[in-house]
Amino acid sequence: MATTTKLSELTGHYVLDTVRTRIGFVARHTMATRVPGWFGAFEGGGYLDGDDPARSEVRFTMEANSIRTRNAQRDGLLVGKFLDAERHPLVTFASTAVERLDGDAFKLTGDLTIRGVTNPVTLDLVLTAAEHDPSGPRGACRISFAGGTTIVRTDWGVNWNAATALTISRKVVLNLDVTAVRQ
């Protein structure tokens, strides 16, 4: 694959490559153990304006019941007690601003909705790859971004009871390793 070097060459509408994308998180339990997890079912995409990144937009939708931590009991508690997936089946992100920083660094600001509560967040992202895809249709391009942010879960009402408020850190690191394909 040939690497694309100019951001302007990347302009277009993209959809997530769900096989190559990971939307995850890390939370501390009892302030010592780091517990990683991820969403197994999601979709999304957006528009990248390589000439004027501020005109770009992104959206993601994750299924709350697809959360995985490699522990079935914990997954059940996160889905049921913390995220209340039965009443709030989706976790969503919709961008409100994109800012290009130096080089391949970007700030992606948007509205994150969890449990029906929406708050603004800013993700720090880096463009990690941009390649023409010879296996796709003419003009196909694959781009990858990596980065994340830290949120305070209780700002979205993500808590179970008083004990978990003390034993699980309020801060959760959201991390993204996203690949998207131009349409």
Describe the structure.
It is a single chain. By secondary structure, this protein is mainly beta. It is 9% helix and 55% strand. It has an eight-stranded antiparallel beta barrel. The longest helix has 11 residues. The chain is elongated and about 55 Å long. It starts with 11 loop residues before the first strand and ends with a strand. The model has no long low-confidence stretch (mean pLDDT 92).
Strand order of the largest sheet: 1-4-5-7-8-9-10-11
Fraction of residues in H or I helices: under 10%
Major β-sheet annotation: 8 strands, antiparallel, barrel
Q: How many strands in all?
A: 11
Given as residue ranges, the uncertain stretches (5+ residues, pLDDT < 50) are none
Return the structural class: mainly beta
Measured on Cα atoms, how large is the radius of gyration?
17 Å
| Net shape | elongated
Order of helices and strands: EEEEEEHEEEEHE
Number of helices: 2
Spatial gap, N to C terminus: 17 Å
Strand content: over 45%
| Average pLDDT number | 92
In short:
The chain contains 2 helices and 11 strands; from the N terminus they run ββββββαββββαβ.
What features would you highlight for this structure?
eight-stranded antiparallel barrel, 183 residues, mainly beta
Write the layout of secondary structure elements.
Elements: E1 12-16, E2 22-29, E3 33-39, E4 42-48, E5 57-63, E6 67-68, H1 72-82, E7 90-100, E8 105-114, E9 117-132, E10 141-152, H2 162-167, E11 168-182
Antiparallel strand pairs: 1-4, 1-11, 2-3, 2-11, 3-6, 4-5, 5-7, 7-8, 8-9, 9-10, 10-11
